[in-house]
Every structure is written in structure tokens, then in C-alpha cells.
Design goal:
Strand order of the largest sheet: 2-8-7-4-5
Strand content: over 45%
Shape: flat
Largest sheet: 5 strands, mixed
Distance between the termini: 126 Å
Mean pLDDT: 89
CATH superfamily of the largest domain: Immunoglobulins
Number of helices: 2
Structural class: mainly beta
CATH architecture of the largest domain: Sandwich
CATH class of the largest domain: Mainly Beta
Number of domains: 7
Length: 687
């Protein structure tokens, strides 16, 4: 009965589980609740960048962010998370709705952002500065304000620390934006003025919006010669004032008055004014107006920056040239040209003479009228000297590199390039020069050059060609025993790479070259092109050089032996030098093969049996003199005049030993049997 109840309970539970699963599978899933978790900042001006975090229902769903129904951001959620940022659009001051909308489910969630009013202030400026008595337009902007009208208190503080306030009404749009202009001092309360030189500050309400402007006496702070300096200053009507201008070579003063009180005076900068800073000072003679700060101001005459490029007659820029600017014969500025040949001087408008000097000698001059910033070229009477050093052998001319040219009075050494040429730039043409030529520090030529003039006229290029001395290089090729070796190819090459001089020695082993002074590598070759020897020699005078061909005419013997050191006859031996044909021969009865007239070097000995093309042994060797080399063939043994492989010889020996052993045993057995028989016969006889 208990077992039956237990089965019923189990069946009931299983039915409940299956039914629940079936029902739950058709129930709608619980959805995530849309929320805005963060919005930072939550208040600010129009244009503020806002970061926003929110959750939506749809995993990976598309979303939109709207500010008062205006789309400001969109994208795709990461899981349920929305991370977005937007810029606050144009809007009036106050709270505004920020909505995040799930575009898949249609659900949304909202938050609020508070727009705060922002003010800014700027000035309408002109090309010239503000002067005393001028009216300054002040522009006030509002964003995020009230729709219709906003009010800003504009405060201007003068350099005398007096403040004037203007309440400015600003008409704004439906979105709270607006602009209004107030002219200072015209639109400000009575007493407002621009009567003081210095900085005026502008502030709005209690906000951080602010600006400044400056008032000066003159319509500029920089002038050039003959330009008009306009001076304005505010005083009482008909008040007598003294205007004074002082500076380098200037001390000007004038008494002025005006019925309106606005002093407006023009002063012409003198045509000979110097580059300097000048001072303007205005004071009241009656002391009716005493200003603090006083009417004092500086202005400058800066001059024009003139870039002068010094060039030689060949058009090359020249460095280290002293350029002097003279006005009416008086030096007013100077500079030295840099590595690009440019010298910069500041001079005022006028007629000038630019003079170029090198080592205190005048080399160029140029007259120029200056009325603006310009760049000019100053051509100098300077010549480029081009020196070409060559060798002349059998009518063939070869350029010589790495030759030294020491030039005085420049006192510097120049070296020829791969083309045998050196160029010495920008020399004074009417100076005497001397050139000392060297090769590997060995002098070979001295050339005086009185001037670099051609027909007494400076030229762009002065060319000079110098021949290097041609010397006799006598080369003798000798055998190792000192005997002459003829018909040997000798090559002599200068270390700087000039052409190779070559020829064959005569029957006496001699060959002579006409070659330019230098350092040479001399190589000797046999008729097949194998180098026999080489040496290096300096050729600074006629010279005799001996080249011993120690590797020529050697005798090499190859002794071929077997495992026991016995000579092996009739072995085909080939001796070969790399790049040369093989020299074959056969070993004699003593196992020696001899090679005569061998040219030494790295060689290889190869052994062959009979006419076989397969080598049985090979050995490398360096042949530097006549020699005998032993080649041991461990795999072979000479047996009764026959060449037997070592393994076969060993088998024969073993067989022989076995036979000897067996024979010895048999002999021993027979002897023992004979002895036994002999013993038995003796016993019978005794009986």
C-alpha cells in the first residue's frame, strides 16, 4: 500500500512540473524598466557638453536622445545600457525635458536639464587703436536667456578707477538669444569719458563675462619717416596745453588749445628720423586739468627689415660678408651674412648704399631706395677658383682624386674629388695666391697665381689645370731562387682607383710603366691568370720593384701508401688548383707521383684506381714551396704486388691463421700418436 502511494505522489509531482514548464513557456517575459541613471552636468549654458547613462528594455536596441523633442543623439545600446553625450541646443533659461526612447519597444524615460543664462561681451574694433575722445562700441550677447527681453548691467572702469554703469536691455528670440550694443561713453551716464590713456575694463552684472580696451594718444604705435602722427587728448574747452615729442635727435614742443577741449594735432615724422623709441607728453599750462594717469605715451620708428643676400660672380651665396648700410655716407646699420649668404638689417625709408666687405676689403656695392620691407641681392666681385689635377700618360689624361691643394693666404687645404677637381669659392680676384699641391702628404707642385683677373677683369670662374708628375715604375719578376721570370703579366693599380697599368715582362723578367705619383698595388700573374704574388709600393720618385714569384715552378710529390705504409704503384693522381685544369699522372713502383712546374696555392689531390672516374681518396693542401705529401689509403693493402682491400686481407689472414692452427693441431696429434706407438713396441720387446 505504501509503495502504491509513493508512486502516486511521484506521478503527481512530475505532472505538476511538466504543466508548469508548459504554462511558463507561454507567459510574457519580465521586461527591464527604462531608467536614466546619470546625467552630468544637469545644468549649464547653451553649448554645454552633457554625458548621459540610461537603461532601455531591448537588449542591443536602437535608441534616441531628445532635448525638448529635438534629436540630439542616437545609437545602439550595449546589452541594456545606453551611454551617450550631446550638446545643449539653443533654448531659453529654465528646465527642459531630456528623453531617452527605446525605438524597438517604443518605451521612453525622461529627465530634466536646467539651462542657465550666459552673457558675453566684445568690442567692435577698427584697424587703428582707440584714442582719447573716441566712442567705443560695446556689444553684449545673451544665450539661454528669457524669451523677449533680458537686462544686463554694463560697467566700465576707467584708468582713474572711476566706474560708469549702463543698464542695457537686450531683446531676445523665442530661444532666448539676443544682442545689443552700447557706445561708451555716449550711452553711459554723465561724466563717462575716454579722457585717460590706459586700460578700461568692462564687466556685466555679477557674471564672469568681461573684456578690456585700451586708449592711447596716437593713431598708431609705430611710424616710418614722413608718416603723420595724429595725437588726440581731452581737456577743458580753450584750456592751454603743451605737447612735447622727444627721442633720438628729436626735441619738439608746441602749445595747443581748442574751443571744444579736444586736442587734435598732426606731427610729421622727419625724413631723417632714426630707428628709436620716442615719447609724447601733454600737460596743462593752467593746471586746470591734472590727469592721473598723465597723458604720456611712447611710439617707435622700427625701420624696415631688409634681407641682403651676398652672391659671388658665379651666383653662389657667400657667407661671412660684412654688409654695411650707409645713408649719406654714414653707416647706420651692419650685419654679417650667415651660412646661406643672408644678412638682415633694419633701416628706415630713404636712399642707401650697401657695401660688402671681406677681410676689410671692399668687394661689392649696391644703391637702393627703401620704402618698405624688401629682399635684395648684393653681387660681390668674388671669383670661384676651380683646380683640376690630372695625369698625362701616353696621351691619355686621367683625373687624380684625393690630391691636396693648400692655398695661401687663405691658409686652408682643399682636396680633389673623384673627378680630380676642387673648387675654392669666393676669392678676392685682385689678390696674389699660391697653391702647394700634395699627394699622400708628398709635395709635387707649387703654382703661384698673381691674380684671378682675366684681362684685368674679375670673372665668375678661374680655371687652373695642374699635371701630376709621371714617374718610371720598373718591375722585375723573379723566381724564388732569384732567377728572372719572363712572360709574366704585371698589373699596377693606384690605391685611389686611377686606371690600371699593365704589361708582360720580357725574357729578363722586366717591365716598365709610366705612372703618376701615388701608392700602388703591384700584382704578378702567370699566362693562365693565376696570381703569383703581390706587393704595395710608394711611387714618389722613379723606382725599381722586385716581385718574387715564390709560388711559380714548384715540384709537388704525392706519396700514396697502403694501410701498412707500403707504396702503392699505378694509382691515378690528379693535382688541381682552383680555377685551373687538372694535372694527372700515375704513381711509380715506390708509390710516388711527381708534378713539376706547379703554381702554388690552395690545391686538392684526388686519387683514382685504374681508369675509374670515381675517386677513392681526396685531400686539400696549401702549396707554398716544393714539397712531398703522403696520402694514406687505409682501405687497401699491397699483397704480393696486388692491391687488396683491407677487409679482404684481414679475412685472408684469419683463414691462414686458422689453417696454421689446424695444421699445428694435426701435426701435434700425429706426433703424439707416433710416440705412443713407439712406446708400445718397446714394452713388447722387453717381455
Amino acid at each position: 500500500m505504501k509503495k502504491r502511494l509513493s508512486g502516486i505522489v511521484q506521478l503527481t509531482c512530475l505532472t505538476l512540473i511538466l504543466t508548469s514548464t508548459f504554462v511558463l513557456s507561454y507567459l510574457p517575459r519580465a521586461l527591464a524598466v527604462p531608467t536614466i541613471s546619470a546625467m552630468s552636468p544637469s545644468f549649464g549654458n547653451v553649448g554645454t557638453r552633457v554625458g548621459l547613462s540610461a537603461n532601455i528594455t531591448t537588449i542591443g536596441g536602437q535608441y534616441e536622445v531628445r532635448f525638448d523633442e529635438q534629436l540630439v543623439a542616437n545609437g545602439t545600446a550595449t546589452d541594456n545600457l545606453v551611454t551617450a553625450s550631446f550638446t545643449v541646443p539653443q533654448a531659453t533659461a529654465g528646465s527642459h525635458v531630456v528623453m531617452v526612447k527605446d525605438l524597438v519597444s517604443g518605451e521612453n524615460v525622461t529627465g530634466t536639464f536646467t539651462v542657465t543664462t550666459a552673457y558675453s561681451v566684445e568690442l567692435i574694433t577698427s584697424a587703428k587703436p582707440f584714442q582719447e575722445g573716441d566712442s567705443i562700441p560695446i556689444v553684449v550677447n545673451v544665450t539661454g536667456g528669457e524669451s523677449g527681453k533680458n537686462v544686463a548691467n554694463v560697467t566700465v572702469q576707467t584708468p582713474s578707477n572711476t566706474s560708469y554703469v549702463k543698464m542695457l536691455e537686450i531683446a531676445s528670440s523665442a530661444l532666448g538669444n539676443g544682442t545689443a550694443t552700447a557706445n561708451y561713453p555716449t550711452d553711459f551716464p554723465t561724466g563717462a569719458n575716454t579722457s585717460f590713456v590706459g586700460n578700461y575694463s568692462i564687466t556685466l552684472n555679477t557674471t564672469t563675462a568681461s573684456s578690456t580696451f585700451s586708449v592711447i594718444l596716437t593713431n598708431s604705435t609705430e611710424y616710418h619717416r614722413t608718416q603723420t602722427v595724429n595725437v588726440k587728448a581731452l581737456y577743458e574747452p580753450n584750456e592751454n596745453v603743451t605737447l612735447t615729442i622727444t627721442g633720438k635727435d628729436v626735441n619738439y614742443s608746441v602749445n595747443l588749445t581748442d574751443p571744444s577741449g579736444l586736442i587734435n594735432y598732426d606731427w610729421i615724422v622727419p625724413g631723417n628720423a632714426s630707428i628709436a623709441t620716442y615719447n609724447i607728453n601733454i600737460v596743462s599750462l593752467s593746471k586746470l586739468t591734472i590727469k592721473s594717469p598723465p597723458d604720456v605715451q611712447n611710439f617707435t620708428i622700427p625701420g624696415f627689415t631688409i634681407n641682403i643676400t651676398a652672391k659671388n660672380l658665379a651666383g653662389d651665396p657667400v657667407s661671412s660678408i660684412n654688409v654695411i648700410a650707409l645713408e649719406n655716407g654714414i653707416s647706420v646699420a651692419s650685419a654679417v651674412t650667415n651660412s646661406t649668404g643672408v644678412a638682415a638689417v633694419a633701416i628706415e625709408a630713404g636712399n642707401y648704399t650697401f657695401k660688402a666687405q671681406q677681410q676689410d676689403q671692399k668687394v661689392g656695392e649696391l644703391n637702393v631706395e627703401i620704402n618698405d620691407t624688401v629682399s635684395v641681392d648684393l653681387v660681390c666681385n668674388l671669383t670661384n677658383m676651380r683646380v683640376l689635377i690630372v695625369s698625362l700618360v701616353n696621351g691619355a689624361e686621367t683625373n687624380i682624386p684625393d690630391a691636396g691643394v693648400y692655398l695661401t693666404p687663405v691658409n686652408n687645404t682643399f682636396y680633389t674629388d673623384v673627378n680630380g677637381t676642387t673648387v675654392i669659392h669666393s676669392l678676392v680676384p685682385n689678390v696674389s695666391y699660391s697653391l702647394n699641391m700634395t699627394r699622400y702628404n708628398t709635395p709635387f707642385n707649387f703654382t703661384p697665381v698673381p691674380t684671378l683677373l682675366i684681362n684685368d677683369v674679375p670673372v665668375a670662374w678661374f680655371d687652373l689645370k695642374v699635371n701630376i708628375p709621371i714617374l718610371a715604375l720598373n718591375v722585375a719578376t723573379l723566381k724564388s731562387n732569384g732567377q728572372p721570370l719572363g712572360n709574366i703579366l704585371v698589373k699596377a693599380q693606384e690605391m685611389a682607383g686611377v686606371p690600371v697599368y699593365q704589361g708582360f715582362t720580357d725574357i729578363n723578367g722586366n717591365v716598365t710603366f709610366d705612372a703618376p705619383l701615388g701608392k700602388y698595388t703591384i700584382r704578378a700573374y702567370d699566362a693562365s691568370g693565376v696570381m703569383l704574388n703581390h706587393t704595395s709600393e710608394d711611387l714618389f720618385a722613379n723606382k725599381n720593384v722586385s716581385v718574387y714569384c715564390d709560388l711559380y715552378g714548384l715540384t709537388v710529390s704525392v706519396h700514396v701508401v697502403d694501410y701498412f705504409g707500403q707504396g702503392i704503384a699505378n694509382v691515378n693522381v690528379k693535382l688541381q688548383r682552383e680555377g685551373q685544369a687538372q694535372m694527372p699522372t700515375r704513381t711509380q713502383a715506390d708509390g710516388v707521383a711527381t708534378f713539376d712546374n706547379v703554381i702554388g696555392g690552395d690545391m686538392e689531390v684526388t686519387l683514382y684506381l685504374g681508369d675509374s672516374s670515381q675517386p677513392i681518396a681526396a685531400k686539400g693542401l696549401a702549396v707554398e714551396n716544393s714539397m712531398t705529401i703522403q696520402v694514406k689509403m687505409d682501405n687497401y693493402v699491397v699483397l704480393a704486388g696486388l692491391l687488396v682491400e683491407t677487409s679482404l686481407f684481414a679475412a685472408i689472414v684469419i683463414i691462414v691463421l686458422i689453417l696454421v692452427f689446424v695444421l699445428a693441431i694435426e701435426v701435434y696429434r700425429l706426433r703424439r700418436s707416433k710416440i705412443q706407438k713407439s712406446g708400445s713396441g718397446s714394452s713388447n720387446n722387453e717381455s
